[in-house]
Amino acid sequence: MAPPAQSQRSPSPSQPSGKGEVSDLKMQLRQLAGSRAPGTDDTKRELFKKVISYMTIGIDVSSVFSEMVMCSATSDIVLKKMCYLYVGNYAKHNPDLALLTINFLQRDCKDEDPMIRGLALRSLCSLGVANLVEYLVGPLGNGLKDGNSYVRMVAAVGVLKLYHISASTCMDADFPALLKHLMLKDKDPQVVANCLTSLQEIWSLEASTSEEAAREREALISKPVVYYFLNRIKEFNEWAQCIVLELVSKYVPTDSDEIFDIMNLLEDRLQHANGAVVLATIKVFLHMTLSMTDVHQQVYERIKAPLLTLVSSGSPEQSYAVLSHLHLLVMRAPFIFSSDYKHFYCQYNEPFYVKKLKLEMLTAVANESNTYEIVTELCEYVANVDIPMARESIRAVGKIALQQYDVNAIVDRLLQFLEMEKEHVTAETLVLVKDLLRKYPQWSHDCIAVVGNISSKNVQEPKAKAALIWMLGEYAQDMQDSPYILESLIENWEEEHSAEVRLHLLTAVMKCFLRRPPETQKALGAALAAGLADFHQDVRDRALFYYRLLQYDVSVAERIVNPPKQAVSVFADTQSSEIKDRIFDEFNSLSVVYQKPSYMFTDKEHRGPFAFSEELGNLSIGTEPADDVVAAQRVEANDKDLLLSTSEKEESQGYGNNGSAYNAPSYNASTTTGASSGQLDLVSLDQPSAVHTTTASTAIDELLGLGMPAAPSAADLPALLLNAKAAIDPSAFQQKWRQLPVSVSQEISIDPRGVAAMTNPQALPQHMQGHSIHCIASGGQAPNFKFFFFAQKADDSSAYLVECIINSSSCKVQLKIKADDQSSSQAFSELFQSALSKFSLA
Amino acid sequence: MISQFFVLSQRGDNIVFRDYRGDVQKGSAEIFFRKVKFWREDGKEEAPPVFNLDGVNYFHVKVVGLLFVATTRINLSPSLALELLQRIARVIKDYLGVLSEESLRKNFVLVYELLDEVIDFGYVQTTSTEVLKSYVFNEPIVVDAARLPSLGPAALFMQGNKRMPGTAVTKSVVANEPGGRKREEIFVDIIEKISVTFSSSGYVLTSEIDGTIQMKSYLTGNPEIRLALNDDLYIGRSGVPSYGYSGSAGTGAVVLDDCNFHESVHMDSFDVDRTLSLVPPDGEFPVMNYRITQEFKPPFSINTLIEEAGSLKAEVILKIRADFPSSITANTILVEMPLPTCTTRVNFDLEPGVVGQTADFKESHRKLEWSMKKIVGGSEHTLRAKLNFSQELHGNITKEAGPVSMTFTIPMYNPSRLQVKYLQIAKKMKTSNPYRWVRYVTQANSYVARI
Fold this sequence. Notes:
- Chain A: Residues 1-25, 641-661 are annotated as: Disordered.
- Chain A: This is Beta-adaptin-like protein.
- Chain A: Keywords: Membrane, Protein transport, Transport.
- Chain A: InterPro entries: AP_beta, AP_complex_bsu_1_2_4, ARM-like, ARM-type_fold, B-adaptin_app_sub_C, Clathrin/coatomer_adapt-like_N, TBP_dom_sf.
- The structure holds 2 protein chains of 2 kinds.
- By secondary structure, chain A is mostly helical.
- Among the domains of chain A are: 3-249, Leucine-rich Repeat Variant, CATH 1.25.10; 459-560; 578-608, no CATH class; 698-841, TATA-Binding Protein.
- Chain A contains 43 helices and 8 strands.
- In chain A, the strands form 2 sheets. Chain A has a 6-stranded antiparallel beta sheet with strand order 2-5-6-7-8-4, with helices on both faces. A two-stranded parallel sheet of chain A has the order 1-3.
- Chain A is globular and about 105 Å long.
- Chain B is built from 7 helices and 26 strands.
- Chain B folds into 3 domains: 4-133, Beta-Lactamase, CATH 3.30.450; 153-297 and 413-449, Immunoglobulin-like, CATH 2.60.40.1170; 300-411, Sandwich (Immunoglobulin-like).
- By secondary structure, chain B is mainly β.
- Chain B is globular and about 75 Å long.
- Chain B has helices at 28-37, 78-96, 101-106, 108-118, 129-133, 270-273, 397-400, and strands spanning 4-8, 14-19, 50-53, 56-63, 66-72, 119-120, 123-124, 185-198, 204-217, 225-229, 233-235, 254-256, 258-261, 265-266, 275-278, 283-292, 300-308, 313-322, 329-338, 343-350, 357-362, 367-376, 380-389, 404-411, 420-425, 435-449.
- In chain B, 13% of the residues lie in helices and 41% in strands.
- In chain B, the strands form 6 sheets. Chain B has a 9-stranded mixed beta sheet with strand order 13-16-9-8-26-24-19-22-21, covered by helices on one side.
- The chains are: A mainly alpha, B mainly beta.
- Chains A and B meet through helix 3, helix 5, helix 7, helix 9 and helix 12 of A and strand 2, strand 4, helix 2, helix 3 and helix 4 of B.
């Protein structure tokens, strides 16, 4: 029965306005408030229920607040609970009324019954009214020391609630210290778990302003604390285990023995029926073994079966969450899963989002031995009545063809798709055949024969039409009818809505003209005329360009429009390896499901307890000086042998387009264009590469940077010499940053003239490099810029790590320095500041 | 960290709404519902269980037509959130006996009471029905189960199995029976979901069994229970590739590829005598989930024949044979087959004299549906369908139609041959021997024959 219908006097039971009912309730409650007659509690219960049902469906019942409070003087716990629920809902927005409740809540906090003490304390902390915090401190302090674990459990979370209402009150009362004590001493595991979550949240929020808090936050992942939790892990319930495991995954063990001990201890967690526990355990295993290639691979083998079991048990929603993680692992190490391909076959009743993941996995694990079976299976899906599924399956077949050596059979299959005469199948296949030809030009004869038979009238989708037109132009020599088909397409120029298709049409007719001039001349003329009159800017530009090119010199046009093409060996990947690594770092989180690192979808303040790694992710990595490139590449080369190593070189250069959140460093951009021009081809046809070079500004910056005296510091600070060629990779930096305590933290001012130079984010790193201080990562937008620097002592290679936040409007700089050798950190700080101040004068 | 939890009806009404952190706007339920309902304009694609909208992450699971939803702003573990939602549904069901819109509406105060203890300020405290008992004081208002669609795997036993009391699976863990005494009983269900794909020539391409041993205990005093499984049960197919069927088939051994256990299960003597021991907590929970890719005999064989009869006509003949003993009866069988889009009309010929069978052409989905109330083991059934098309198909019928899929339930049958040999209740009860129900059931997960 719906709550509104419960009120029998309601004139319109479907949607009561609520007003009449609420004032009725108010009157009835008032009558009951003082009554001690037997049966009063039952009547009250009914009335309270009505109030709460109105509350649920969104009717404002705050007007009965005082009556509810008056009626709460009862020993009936069910009534009390309803009253607490009500009060919790309305107190925040009615602070004056909330004051009414303080009295009885405080009294209940001293009740004999621990249940009532706990419940009252929870309600008291949930009021969320800033003026009332003074009333919270006493009961909370008592709650933390209560003899009953339920009350302590509530109090531990209560401290966090207080912190969110008034951080200063919470800190002044020294509650975090009490929590820490409880966390390490309490017998009740849930109390311990709540202390941990509260402390994690409090220290993370405090860490940005307080050094001590940052230290405390680091202390939570120190060896003694982590071991304490590990030793008690079986006492915790499954949810608390997830929290502990997440904590352990942040811990950096000192040696491999420690890693094995931890993994042996947690091994049986992989057999837990709760997927969240299993994934949290897997995260620990994966992260701890990252640098141990063999063991890391064994971990993959070990976690395969539990993951597959989780995928096939539980609700479809749960299995989707696990499947997303399996997908991530398959994409990182396809060869480990190549014999499990049958698990990735789609079932007809699965939702599309599951099938899509499975198709990607099938594509990834395809190798010489299983390709035939996988492609056969995929062909079944192509015939599927489900159109999106058929499309995805064709794409999968195409992707497999593009990554295989022996594509013979696959090309035949693709060509068969064209004969199926289903519009969506034909369209999707055409796009693929086009890509295939760019990689394997040797197949052109077979393909052209089939493609030539397709009537352009049956192809309507712009992408497919563009692909067909591209082939008509590219293979004009081999396709008998090419000029005439193009001609008929040009006749319908006006009806062609897609600018992309019109652009391709222009290029194709150009190519065709250069090969078969007499037959195409007329079509070309018509196309150029139509193009010049086109309302779309790009189309008009291209038509004009071709027109002038032909006017200037036909042979030059030939060289530009129809140069001999190199087969494409690698298509640029859409997702950079850096992004993939970030997602892997955030294993067991939404990043994996969304296939995006968290900084792309969460606000900064919601990034969880240990936000450092995310911070670094927000910045662009890779401003190493030229000397370091060699070292970095050497590392990469080694990594390639490592199992899931990070990056393929082709990909790593392609990252400049990951959203506006960070600036592509000009340094990288120039290498991309310099080193790999001609090899790296974007999938889109004939479009200019999307990489922007900022050569001009770089040149100026270089002048600025190089113009600085190379080692001015030597004279000022003879005590400290830095290694000019120091190098560290970002992940090692990150790890070190986590391990080391902050040794210097201060705020300084810089010259506004220097700040002006901040408009180019590359200027400062290059300047600092002249002082042997290397930038690891940088980012931010005006007015806040953030940099991570790294330096190394020349004589004993101990490291200095710097976080530097520059506010360009206030000209303030916040410095945090961490050092292996604490004693020299002050000297380094001075050196750093002097280098920075020289930037100001540059 | 969960910001909000709410339950929506199929129409999008708020049945329960609890805000834990106050950092997500109040209208989130409406925003969520609109997004899910209109995920894609054509309405064909389902919304995924997790999505992000304006910085808010929405998680949802569907249980008996209700949407259980959680929101958060942080980068939470999706498994944790979805597992939690499923668990909340189970806890509520344990308390209310029946989970439905009506039972939730009647008991929303009790549900709020549960929610307050399950999550505090966004952090999960406990989802154990047992632990929650000491915190929860409302008595459930029991709704009549008979009128409601049943829920969950155990509900399979409701149909056609007279040997057990119908009320058992819909009994609340806290409500007392009329007469004040609780009936001492324990249910152990072996539920196997099978997936089989047949090639067009009738060979098994892939097959898998996903099994669960589910337990629901109404025993007082939390006695320890020992559950003995097959002697020849093995876990892990070490050395045997996952799909090497020849390996262990025929030896009679039951080989699980992998399995996982509820946290209450002790495996101390499992290696010696294949016995699991546990103290079952109150409420329903899976003792063990397992996965088998070992070859097994599929319960049904499906035979499809398509004959073209002229340019605009064709005949489809579907044959289903039940390959299990005649002492066993499958029920609620549905055979489906997509037909070419140009199909305009279908005439059906059922076997003469059959009862409990219907055949239908669902025009909107271009689908043939053949349903049977029951099939006795060893029997065979045939359906003939004459199709009329609006345009010529040029022999392309097989590319436009199929595959044939089948759903069914077979009580007292499990293809894996995994057994509970005995169920021992350690402590002697004061009262008479408690009732023990050990039940088997097999259900089709994805049972598909290509044509």
